[in-house]
Amino acid sequence: MSSFRKIAVLGAGAWGTALANAAARAGREVVLWEFDEKQANALIKERVNTLYLPGVKLADEVTPAADIHAIAGCDAALMVVPAQHMRATAALAAPHLKKDVPVISCAKGIERGSLSFMSQILRATLPHNPACALSGPSFAADVAHGLPAAVTLAAKDEWLAADLSRALASPVLRLYHSDDVIGVEIGGAAKNVIAIGAGIAAGVGLGQSAGAAFIARGFAELRRFGSALGGKPETLMGLSGLGDLVLTATSPQSRNFSYGVAIGKGASPDGKLAEGAFTAQALVELAQKNHVEMPIATAVRDVLDGKITVSQAIETLLARPLTSEE
Ligand SMILES: NC(=O)C1=CN([C@@H]2O[C@H](COP(=O)(O)OP(=O)(O)OC[C@H]3O[C@@H](n4cnc5c(N)ncnc54)[C@H](O)[C@@H]3O)[C@@H](O)[C@H]2O)C=CC1
Ligand SMILES: O=C(CO)COP(=O)(O)O
User: Fold this and answer.
1) What Pfam families does the annotation carry (predicted)?
2) How many CB atoms sit inside 10 A of residue 251's CB?
3) pTM of the predicted model, to two decimals?
């Protein structure tokens, strides 16, 4: 019998809704809290997330809620709000979480200003709750439709990561456990920025050879950054690093990739959440602070900030001195 009977999911966007159903599929009782009251009430009434994950019914074991008190008594909490709202959401949850209840960030990003990863925000806001991270190649729609996926769940205490992984796994969702929380988070945050760049390259029509070069060189940046910040090489080479970069930087289903495609085509992005657009500045600042060279991420940041045009970004990247491949 798992000790994680009741799971709270905070954030009923696409990923929170998919994870709530996944936890139900794993045999858990789930409370799905949503910040937007109108949206929460629609979920309570209709039991379908028409706005963020249309066509997917909530599992019977999932109870949607507008009131944060509903998370009381949970045995673990999945934090599935956009990265820039993680701190406020954790603060809202704090009075309702018992000591030692693990809190698992499922968001992919770095907080602007503080340059904090999600686990650092959770540790600062919920110091008595172990901060964990869940990340990997997993489109919400795929997971919600029961297509197979594999992700990594990390906690400083690997026994806890293994227990949580077992509690959330099902025949179609494999969770690998790890003790490398920062390594897992780095992959999720950095790949979104690189994926926007890959989307821009695709939108401009640079071709598939350039697309592959972009992923390989983007991954070199991700690994350099990851190892400077203490991520383990096997994590960066794994699901949450290479795995998620390949998925996000090649698929039109990705919001970050599509955001880049729109920019590359000179069109306006569709307004869906593209976490990389919020994280680019923080990623580049953190890289500079740690003396890590990230030319692709920097070019993406500069294009998003309007400092340079897409053509100038391409010219600058192609004109870099020829070096060894590392
Ligand atoms: N959609 C996907 O396939 C996946 C998403 N993720 C990550 O999960 C996180 C959430 O993304 P999605 O669920 O896709 O987002 P979404 O765009 O589907 O939904 C956004 C959610 O954020 C909530 N929200 C908006 N403003 C808020 C605020 N001020 N405070 C608290 N909540 C607020 C909305 O009410 C909604 O629940 C992101 O970091 C994303 O990178 C990770 C893996 C897969
Ligand atoms: O993180 C994701 C897949 O692993 C989702 O990617 P997007 O946010 O770019 O859609």
Assistant:
1) NAD_Gly3P_dh_C (PF07479), NAD_Gly3P_dh_N (PF01210)
2) 16
3) 0.98
